[in-house]
Design goal:
The complex is a heterodimer.
Chain A (H helix, E strand, L loop, with lengths): L12 H8 L1 E3 L7 E4 L2 E5 L4 H10 L9 E4 L8 H5 L7 H17 L2 E3 L9 H8 L7 E4 L13 E4 L2 H10 L1 E4 L3 E8 L8 H12 L7 E6 L1 H4 L3 H9 L8 E4 L3 H7 L8 H12 L11 E6 L6 E3 L7 E3 L11 H7 L14 E4 L7 H11 L9 E4 L4 H9 L2 H8 L2 E2 L20 E4 L14 E4 L2 H10 L6 H10 L1
Parallel strand pairs in A: 3-4, 3-6, 4-5, 6-7, 9-10, 9-12, 10-11, 15-16, 15-18, 16-17, 18-19
Antiparallel strand pairs in A: 1-2, 2-8, 13-14
Helix pairs in contact in A: 2-6, 7-9, 13-15, 13-16
Chain B lengths: L5 E9 L6 H4 L19 H4 L22 E4 L11 H9 L3 E4 L4 H9 L3 E4 L2 H8 L5 E5 L4 E3 L5 E3 L4 H9 L3 H6 L2 H10 L5
Parallel strand pairs in B: 1-2, 2-3, 3-4
Antiparallel strand pairs in B: 1-5, 5-6, 6-7
Classes of the chains: A alpha/beta, B alpha/beta.
The complex binds iron/sulfur cluster.
């Protein structure tokens, strides 16, 4: 039934997962029919897909393999929730209501407005234990690549394909190529997974992964926590890659053990044994390979209007070759130092950096300090569960005492279609994944950075290297 | 979907590289639950001033762009989000072909599924197309050719199945539904589907 790849060098992680999910092998004339284990659905990219099914009289084939939440268009300000979301945009409200109706009608589990486990789709999948190694996972959202951190094949699809998966649990896919990103060495203190992936994108470019699935490997990757691996895989799409993956290991299994949708007892033991077999065979080769030395990295920040326009925070805007259009939009000039750029807004959140360890990192810098006058800092947990955990640890108080806003979960200022947005001309240091023109509000200027760098910039009021603040914090403690 | 075969049109040129889906249609227009009428928001932040009036200097607002069905785009067009609203907006505006040297994976697949020809040509042919805005060209899907402004033609490849669907008006969902027996057998026999 499946078509094992018969090369003498063995199969990669990607090959193994692909082979397991081939329902009909690909031929010259037709792509493979690929089975989808888990289909994640959100309010923005699904209504037109449900309409297709309704028009054609089709049922959702596997409601139990489908999980829905609301995240993109839902407000996150605490005041909005206290007022029963009265300030919510009419169209957004309609979209959220439509998802509830569609899920109710088809039997899809919805983590909706009143659900205590709702959150950003790429945060709650792992948190619930719905995301597991070896799976194929899709969602009408490009950052589905996040789930690859678990050794799953996870990628974004368009709305037409959402309809395909709803109706058949399958997709038509040509097998992509693979790109190994080998990261050895160790990240220094103050340098995070976010800095690592920004550096990778800076090296290979925003189109560098097109047509490929990236397998992240090497000792630096093995040492990352699951939260950090998710940050890395989240931004694989920003290099144009179809998906990003990390081989599952004990770090993965520890994260998953006991999660509400993870297997238990004997089923857990069997699952772990199977998951261990997924790692690439010795000698298995990717179609292309790049190498990165983690120990050479400094905190990174983007200065332009795509995630490949990136430099060390201690560095400068390139003196030559920078897109004039990007410089003009961002209000930077060639060769200008990055540190010291005045900041208006700081956003800690998004499916890249809104998990508990991200919030802890930001809090560690902010703790006992004040957000600089004139700077607005928003901290938006990725899920209600993460929010509760952070509150149990007292992180919300640390942020509040520093003068930062603590929000309900959601996509918030990552996408600015939910009430949270920056104004034209404002500079935002953001832990999200896209610095495209207008992404955080028409005319807003986004500098992508880690939670540490974002927090340090909030405190100093200008783009700042977080490392000196880390050391001061330790001396105080 | 109506079959696509030969498209003759003048070109409009947007040479910027890495035009992302947030430029093609900003997120604030994604709260719609319909796929119709999105052409009015195409490149909204480039076409319109903050106050709402059109920007005369933006290429799609120039009189000569009216009626052009072919967009010659810079490298790596359509990167970013998976929003199918991007090809819907282009099609609704009247664009039926996008030509570049590289097109982002998800955008390309979304485009082809909706009858928007997303075509990659060699850099030399691309350079000639970029250099000649407003040229009358012919895109022939069956032959896999684009006529170039100064004579000659460029070849392009479109994945065989997508090409078949476009030429014959075949619906991929119908094709998948036809694999019901295989899907059922897979579900019965695959121990690892979790
Ligand atoms: S947080 Fe941002 S990137 Fe992530 S799913 Fe939401 S809008 Fe998309």
């Amino acid at each position: 039934m499946t078509t094992p790849l018969t090369t003498s060098t063995g199969r990669t992680l990607f090959d193994k997962i692909w082979d397991r999910h081939v329902v009909v092998p690909e031929t010259e004339d037709a792509p493979a029919v690929l089975y989808v284990d888990l289909h994640l659905v959100h309010e923005v990219t699904s209504p037109q897909a449900f309409d297709v099914l309704r028009r054609r009289g089709l049922e959702v084939r596997q409601p139990d393999r489908t999980l829905a939440t609301i995240d993109h268009s839902i407000p996150t300000a605490v005041s909005s929730w206290k007022n029963g979301l009265v300030d919510m945009d009419v169209a957004a409200r309609n979209q959220v209501r439509k998802l509830a109706t569609n899920c109710g009608r088809t039997g899809i589990r919805l983590y909706g407005v009143n659900n205590s486990r709702r959150g950003i789709v790429h945060v709650i999948g792992p948190e619930l234990g719905a995301t597991r190694p070896g799976m194929t996972i899709v969602c009408g959202d490009s950052h589905t690549t996040t789930h690859g951190a678990f050794g799953a094949l996870a990628f974004g699809i368009g709305t037409s394909e959402v309809a395909h998966v709803l109706a058949t649990q399958c997709l038509l896919q040509r097998k992509p190529k693979t790109l190994a990103v080998q990261v050895d060495g160790r990240l220094h203190e103050g340098v995070t997974a976010k800095d690592l992936i920004l550096a990778v994108i800076g090296q290979i470019g925003v189109g560098g992964g097109t047509g490929h699935v990236i397998e992240f490997r090497g000792s630096a990757i093995e040492h990352l926590s699951m939260d950090a691996r998710m940050t890395v895989c989240n931004m694989a799409i920003e290099a144009g890659a179809r998906a990003g993956m990390v081989a599952p290991d004990d770090v993965t299994f520890e994260y998953l053990a006991g999660r509400c949708m993870a297997p238990r007892g004997a089923a857990w033991d069997r699952a772990v044994e199977d998951w261990r077999s997924l790692s690439g065979d010795p000698g298995a080769r990717c179609d292309a390979c790049v190498r990165i030395d983690a120990s050479a990295l400094e905190p990174q920040v983007t200065w332009g209007t795509d995630p490949g326009m990136v430099a060390a925070v201690t560095g400068r805007v390139p003196t030559s070759g920078a897109s004039p259009r990007a410089l003009e939009y961002m209000g930077f000039s060639a060769g200008e130092p990055l540190q010291g750029r005045p900041v208006d807004v700081v956003f800690v959140g998004s499916c890249t950096n809104s998990r508990i360890s991200d919030l802890r990192q930001a809090a560690s810098v902010v703790s006992g300090r004040r957000v600089a006058a004139g700077v607005r800092m928003l901290v938006v947990p990725g899920s209600q569960e993460t929010k509760r955990q952070a509150e149990a640890e007292g992180l919300d108080r640390i942020f509040a005492e520093a003068g930062a806003e603590w929000h309900e979960s959601g996509c918030s200022l990552c996408i600015a279609m939910n009430g949270d947005r920056a104004k034209a001309g404002q500079t935002v240091v953001s832990t999200s994944n896209r610095n495209f023109e207008g992404r955080q509000g028409a005319g807003a200027r986004t500098l992508l950075a880690s939670p540490l760098t974002a927090a340090a910039s909030a405190i100093t009021g200008t783009l700042a290297d977080p490392r000196p603040l880390l050391h001061q914090a330790r001396r105080i403690a | 979907m109506k079959p696509v075969d030969v498209i003759r049109s003048r070109t409009v040129v947007m040479a910027d590289p890495n035009v992302d889906t947030d430029q093609i249609i900003p997120a604030r227009f994604l709260t719609t639950t319909s796929r119709d009428g999105l052409g009015q928001h195409l490149f909204a932040d480039h076409r319109f001033e903050a106050a709402g009036g059109p920007r005369g200097d933006f290429v799609l607002n120039r009189p000569e762009a009216a009626g052009c069905q072919v967009l010659i785009a810079g490298d790596n067009f359509g990167c970013g989000s998976s929003r199918e609203h991007a090809p819907w907006a282009l099609l609704d505006f009247g664009i039926r072909v996008v030509i570049s040297t590289a097109i982002a994976d998800i955008f390309r697949s979304n485009a082809l599924r909706n009858g928007l020809l997303a075509i990659v040509v060699e850099p030399e042919a691309h350079r000639r197309l970029l250099a000649t805005p407003g040229a009358e060209i012919c895109v022939d899907l069956r032959a896999g050719t684009v006529s170039l402004p100064d004579g000659g033609e460029a070849r392009f490849e479109i994945e065989r199945f997508a090409r078949h669907c476009l030429l014959e008006g075949v619906d991929p969902l119908g094709y998948l539904l036809g694999k019901e027996a295989e899907i059922h057998a897979y579900e019965e026999n695959s121990p690892w589907t979790q």
